[in-house]
Amino acid sequence: MSAEPRMSTIEVDASHLSPRAERVTLASVWQGVSGAGFRDDLLEWPPDVFALTNVLLGRAEAFRFALSPPAGERWPPFGAADWSSAVVDAGRDWGAWVEDPQGSAPAALAEAWSVAMKRADLSLEALADGRDWRVCEALLTLHAIADEACAGLGSASASRDPRGATYRGRARELLARTGSLA
């Protein structure tokens, strides 16, 4: 006579579990990674915006949209006759603005940041799918501008642009002291 295998069951108390999983948003991802909020004061330090956009675009695998945008969309953005030059100029202007934040942030930066801030509650899934193209476009643009604003921060080479010299010096000191720009 063979024994029947005994099936065991495990009782799970699910009363503490939410009926729906928490919605993962751009703001919640950044909060989880940095412990900081998705706030305007991030504009005070370009390496932080670079980190923010790198995390969001990386987690959503949205960098791919720079090479293959969703159907019906275009990259670089429409209306940007010379997008690359505009990004370089905005990055340099941002470094100068960080040093002396009189007036408004550079226009291209402020516009892209405004879009990202207004949609900080966008789900990471929607970013990954490219459903809100304007946010994808804004984050890719912010990433490029932040990259330009951070160009050369890790080296002691002299910049031809005297604007932002104090910002670059602060960055090099922070990097030497902590090993990070963020």
Notable characteristics:
single chain; 7 helices; 182 residues; mainly alpha
Order of helices and strands: HHHHHHH
Helix content: 40-55%
Number of helices: 7
Mean pLDDT over the residues: 82
Question: Poorly predicted ranges (pLDDT <50, ≥5 residues)?
Answer: 1-19
Main β sheet profile = none
Return Rg in Å.
22 Å
The outline comes out as globular
Spatial gap, N to C terminus: 70 Å
Note the beta-strand portion.
Answer: under 5%
Structure classification: mainly alpha
Count of DSSP E strands? 0
Number of domains: 1
Furnish the topology, listing elements before pairings:
Elements: H1 26-34, H2 46-59, H3 83-99, H4 107-118, H5 124-129, H6 133-150, H7 165-178
Helix pairs in contact: 2-6, 3-6, 3-7, 4-6
What would you say about this model in short?
With 182 residues, the chain is mainly α. Helices cover 49% and strands 0% of the residues. The protein has one domain (26-153, 161-178).
If you had to describe this structure to a student in words, what would you say it looks like?
- The structure is a single chain.
- The chain has 182 residues and is mainly alpha-helical.
- It has one domain.
- The protein contains 7 helices and no strands.
- α2 packs across α6, α3 crosses α6 (133-150) and α3 (83-99) crosses α7.
